Amino acid sequence: MSTLPLLTIIPAGAGSGKNYRITKQLAEWVKEGRVAPDRIAAVTFTEAAASELRGRIRSTLIERGRLEDALKLDRAFIATIHGFGKRLLVEYAFEAGHCPAPRLLAEDEEQLLLRKAISRIDHIEPISRELYRFGYRYSYTSGTDVEQFRQQILSVIHMLRVIGGDVDWQNRLSHCLGYITKTYGPTGDADLLTAALRRNVQLLFKQYPQPMRDFVDSDSAKSHVESDFINLQKAAQTNALNENWSLWRSLQNIKVFQNDKQLPADYIRMAREIMADASELYRHPGPLDDARRHADALMRSAKDALLDYASRKTNKGIIDYTDMIDGARRLMEQPQVLKHFAGRLDCLVIDEFQDTNPLQFSFLWKIHEAGVPAMIVGDLKQSIMGFQSADPRLMRSLISQHLDQCEPLNANWRSAHQLMAVLNACGGQLFGTEYVPLEPKADFESRLHPLEAIHFEGKGVKNPVKAQHVAVRIKALLSDDKVEVFDRHLKRHRRIRGEDIAILGLTHDRLKAYADALRELGIRAQLAQEGWFESRPIQLAYYALSFVADPQDRHAALYLSVTELGEDDLTSAVRTLLNGKQLSLPLLQHLKALSIRQHDLSVDELVAETIETLSLIHI
User: Fold this and answer.
1) What is residue 12's DSSP assignment?
2) Which of the 8 DSSP states describes residue 218?
3) Element (H, E) at 580
4) What is the pLDDT of residues 515-551, one digit of tens each?
5) What does the alpha-carbon distance between residue 523 and residue 511 come to, in Å, rounded to a whole number?
């Protein structure tokens, strides 16, 4: 029977000493014999954080003279959440039904397999012919309506995988459709609503069968009335009102202008009656039916694609990052496996819990519910992984349900006292009563002002102008012998240097203006630059891969033949191709041989063999 608290939640802000708390707590438990070092499970969300956590625990044990325990730490489960899940899948491969040495899919391979799975779904074809009903339209940035629809399916697939798409599938679909219906609200009679709108449209169109251009003056007004006429004509002379909800929305906004005298009073009256009828669209059951059909199609398509994708992965002995978590979660649903694994652990530490998504939470919580004491550490204010479906509501809910198990860290050991006063003031305004002020504990005093502001009066100040003012201020700081910072390594104050200053911005383009302004003043600035793709080795690799993908790509063959890899000049190589002959570069034959095998290789293997064939290391 464990003597540890079953659950400990540690809300810990930036600089509050959470790593110290974790390592100190684990070291104490090991010293007291309450936890064996090889029976610790600690998960976080980056390789660097996992490595640092292991190193800190090991160092603490060594400092306390527990060398044997420090060595045993290598057998502990200290890893990223994905590494933790993968280790379970390997150690319990038979129970999981997985290959004991699975190959990890690269993200581009995952997307390719999912897209192929979507292309094999038969019931997508009929609905693809009426995507306009669901709001899909061609656009230059998003592509065709079909491509947009498939992208939506990919998004649903991602969502389902994050929440465990295999769990109560039919209930999930029913819940989705029920939520749409509830949110939509009560509906009326479709025939009556449509007939009322059509009747008023036909009355107006009969009385005014021509555009109202002659009644308005400006070009924009003429454009508006012409657009209104086209919509009225379509509504009066076709059956578009039965299914074209965009047309209904257009009829809600017929232009009558602020100066009503521009148009006939009768036209304005009838137009307003049409707008009132069209505004009843929210009561029409048609959009609700389409929304339900759309959701049903997306959910069923995503489910079918996932089944196809899973089957092909199993047959090939491959997994992706989500499988590492989902597969481990499924393992924990087997009572014997869960009992056995929980019996191997003395405690479970979950770091950066605010970045947990529902699937990860489900997996880890099953281990805790099996009786493994858990220490959960995180900070809601630092939740930044929303793009990977992290849900900070999980931590917020956990805290609210287990207030007695919360041990918040309310100190800050990193920032100067003056800066903490500013941060606490801002935190209270940003987060309200949820914010807990942090007590400054740093053992140094800053000689800098905690906050400076460069205020520009008026609107429209260009970014380069702002950059120039900031650069001038930085120049002044670097030139002032009296400006000093506290060096954590030297444990003393020293003169400020350029490496002590960071500029944060929303976009790379904005930051480039600041880098340019600093360089103009003779201050060196580091900024990620473009040019990787244009470099010589990458260009050669790109055209070689293009040729491997398609040996009929004459442009790729021509490019390779006239570089340092070939012996042809541009004129002779072009003449050879125009004469219908093959280029004689031996490299092309090697790449053709590689092309034949491309479907048997992973992306990583194909790229590696292409680079080896090119001998790029010598370029």
Assistant:
1) B
2) S
3) none
4) 999 999 999 888 876 677 777 788 888 999 999 988 8
5) 15
